[in-house]
Amino acid sequence: MITLHWVYALAGAIFAAFAILGVADKSNKRARRTAAFWALLALSMWAGDALGDLGNGVLVLGLVGLAASGLGRGSGAVADAVRQERAGRFGNGLFAIALVIPVTALVGTLLFKEMPGWVDGKQATLIALALGVLIALVMGCLWLRASPVVPLQQGRRLMDQVGWAAILPQMLASLGAVFALAGVGDAVGGLVSQAIPQGSLLGAVIAYGLGMALFTIVMGNAFAAFPVMTAAIGVPLLIRTYHGDPAIVCAIGMLAGFCGTLLTPMAANFNLVPAALLELKDKHGVIRQQVGTALPLLAVNIALIYWLAFP
Amino acid sequence: MWVLLGIAVIVAGFVLRFNPLLVILASAVVTGIAAGLDPVVLLAAFGKAFNEARYVSIIWIVLPVVGLLEAFGLQERARGLIGRMRGATVGRFLTGYLLVRQGLAAVGLTSVAGHAQTVRPLVAPIAEAAAERQAGDLDDAEREKVKAMAAATDNVGLFFGEDIFLAIGSILLIKGLLEQYGINLEPLQLSVWAIPTAIAALLIHGFRLWRLDRRLNRADRP
């Protein structure tokens, strides 16, 4: 059966190729350090399960050490004029190849769930995404008559631009696990339940909505905030004391948390990674654009809980 | 209560702009010490979580495809295409993308689009090209803003579409948590209440995109 481990093997191979091609890039003064970073990530993808928990911890120390000492950036961009000429020559077929990945992910997600013996249904989308990458690579190289080294070289150039931010989301997810182990959520819940005004329904609703958003800003993840705020305010006050509809309180409360996700660098994969990927000068440029949507929407969510959940 | 020091470390580290990876590690160490965890146990716990979260970093495998297509002129082609479409503005284009993204997420297809899959190769260059045509020429700040808005639109579409789907993680989390308090709900009862916020998100973000169009169009006039 095809499982997520096949995808890890593919990802490991791609990171390994980035490392090998990176060592040879003379334009990067920190070529070895940068290559070592991608090589460690390849090792994690290939052998993570065999390294043991402590081994993985040491691997993380290595990644962070390399990142903190400063990674370099490789070169190899194709000249503007060449790209312009090729764009005219190859035309809209370029879009077709670009759409292979989302379309394969879409079709694969639906199809793989019907083939339980062949593909792990829980991971259908990620497996289909990887399949889409392979199909797009083969089609692209054949049609554009490009050597297979071209996509790997160009991919490495883009990867170097993202740099250590590439593992930021994975690191934050791991920090969340340590927070859970240390009981950070319970401590915050204790603080919050002392701070809300007594006897006011509106006050309690605002505390719940704002608390979801604020705690999500701190943790970078509404999933971490939800159990804490619901235990501190949602269930005891809004649902038990004021008899709010639990489905409405919780469903919209979670979305109030999502407004917080739009506002925090801790949600790196949504907010910092695209800034790196789009080569923005301002690391927080994406967050800045989201403030104007997140704040009014948070107010709307709080109002919706107040109006809909308490008839 | 001392475990909250880890949160203080994160906030201070981000504000002072230390390397975020170091800040995360420092926060984990401080939190672990405050909770009385043995350093070796702490390192192993962090390593275990890192290994289990590998799927988060899989998305980078799309970069070779993006790199190949960009080397053969994908972004230039996107600019050429939008340049010939009359009436295509950055606001209208991104509003359309927002609708599609919300719609796909609402039927559970959250990973078919995203920053690496669609925003970098397609959405951002098209948005940039449309904005260029509207404003004549973009200065650096406007160019950054349009690109950032393309990424922001992807996030808004994803976040405020996905909870309409029954089997998404957050809906299952709510159901599981409420069961612990003796409240039994079906996923459908929860997911319908994501619809009002989804509509509000479309209206608010759509309004901001409309205003972006107006600002860019005004910049065109002498």
Structural features, described:
The complex is a heterodimer of chains A (311) and B (222). Chain A is mainly alpha-helical and 311 residues long. Chain A is built from 14 helices and no strands. Chain B is mainly alpha-helical and 222 residues long. The model of chain B has no long low-confidence stretch (mean pLDDT 88). At the A-B interface, helix 1, helix 2, helix 3, helix 4 and helix 5 of A face helix 1, helix 2, helix 3, helix 4 and helix 5 of B.
What is the fold's blueprint, element by element?
The complex is a heterodimer of chains A (311) and B (222).
Chain A lengths: L3 H20 L7 H38 L11 H11 L2 H20 L11 H21 L4 H14 L5 H15 L1 H12 L5 H19 L2 H20 L4 H16 L6 H4 L1 H5 L7 H24 L3
Helix pairs in contact in A: 1-2, 1-6, 4-5, 8-10, 9-10, 9-11, 9-14, 10-11, 11-14
Chain B lengths: L4 H11 L4 H15 L4 H14 L10 H9 L2 H11 L5 H17 L8 H21 L4 H23 L6 H12 L6 H5 L3 H26 L2
Q: Key features?
A:
heterodimer; A: 311 residues; mainly alpha; 2 domains; 77% helix; 0% strand; elongated; B: 222 residues; 11 helices; globular
Poorly predicted runs of chain B are none
> What is the count of DSSP helices of chain A, taking H or I runs of 4+ residues?
14
The largest β sheet of chain A comes out as: none
Query: What is the beta-strand fraction of chain B?
Result: under 5%
Question: Helix tally of chain B?
Answer: 11
H/E series of chain B, N to C? HHHHHHHHHHH
Q: Helix coverage percent of residues of chain A? A: over 70%
- Give the radius of gyration of chain A: 23 Å
* Approximate helicity band of chain B: over 70%
- Approximately what portion of the residues of chain A adopt beta-strand conformation? under 5%
